[in-house]
Amino acid sequence: MQFQKITIVGVGLLGGSLGLAVRQHRVAGEIAGFVRSDKSVADCEKFAATDYATTDLLAAVSNSDLIILCTPLAQMRSLVEQFLPALKRGAIVTDVGSVKADVVRELEPLVKKSGAHFIGSHPMAGAEKTGVAAARANLFANAVCVVTPTKTASPRIVRKLEQFWKSIGARVLKLDAAQHDLLVSRSSHLPHVVAATLAGLVLDPKQPKQQAALCATGFRDTTRIASGSPEMWRDIALANRKHISQSVDAFVADLKKFQTALKASDAKAIEKFFATAKMRRDNWTVKTTSTLSE
Fold first, then answer.
1. Same domain, 116 and 152
2. What is the per-residue pLDDT across 73-102, written as a single tens digit (0 to 9) for each?
């Protein structure tokens, strides 16, 4: 057992999956959950995502060794400010947010003043479904979890947090928060923007009624993530707007190159466009599969 008590602040898909994984791997003696409504308390009990859940934030955090923020980014600072009076000295506070620089900059000094430690985390795991009903214990199995300690972070605490993520099946990667935000703007945030754009354009009610009937597996796969939480993705887009904007510019530039080739009926350029994409994705898939099997 690594922790006596773990508190999950926000028990939805990620928070609920964390609770299930912590229980399955026996990482904590007690799993508490903070939620905002009595219905959510009942849902936590129904799906056994936590040992208990409460709408009392201070009670949930009291005497906890590890607090994990699983709420939308815009709510994190306010919640931390509210639970500081109950924060145990020496406790670790982390999060699962998809943007790290602003979160680390705001929360690390707040938590440090209370004698505790904040280190940012981002498990690269999720699904288009939301809510604790969609939670599953194996969500983090073989997933990369980025940890973003600052230069002033305690190496002992960093190792303890890394061990936590490893104990529930994740593979840990340490990155600077700013570098993390740049890289995920391309690999995570841009794909969501593209999926949302496709879904909005192709499924626009102004399109002919036959349009939706012609949206088959390729369209379904490509736009799956567009069904994610609008609130969560609003916060991500705003928090990482600089890097996402740069990624959109690069994506549009490549699309325009393809459009130029189309207008010119340049068969060689068109084939190269698809061949390069196939080669790079195939190589990535082989490498990823090899890593997961190790």
1. yes
2. 999 999 999 999 999 999 999 999 999 999
pTM for this one? 0.91
Count of domains observed in the chain = 2
Q: What is the pLDDT of residues 107-166, one digit of tens each?
A: 999 999 999 999 999 999 877 677 899 899 999 999 999 999 999 999 999 999 999 999
Please tell me the distance from the alpha carbon of residue 116 to that of residue 92, in angstroms, as a whole number.
Answer: 6
Q: End of a domain among 244, 267, 285?
A: 244
* Phi, psi for 123 (deg, rounded to 5): -70, 125
One domain, residues 60 and 130: yes
For residue 38, what are the contacts with CB-CB under 8 A and spacing of at least 6? 55
**Domain carrying residue 125:** 3-175
Q: How far apart are CA 12 and CA 32, in angstroms?
A: 13
How far apart, in whole angstroms, are the C-alpha atoms of residue 147 and residue 165? 9
Tell me the residue type at 240: N
- Domain assignment present for residue 36? The answer is yes
Residue 14 lies in a domain: yes
- Is residue 150 domain-shared with residue 69, that is, in the same domain? yes
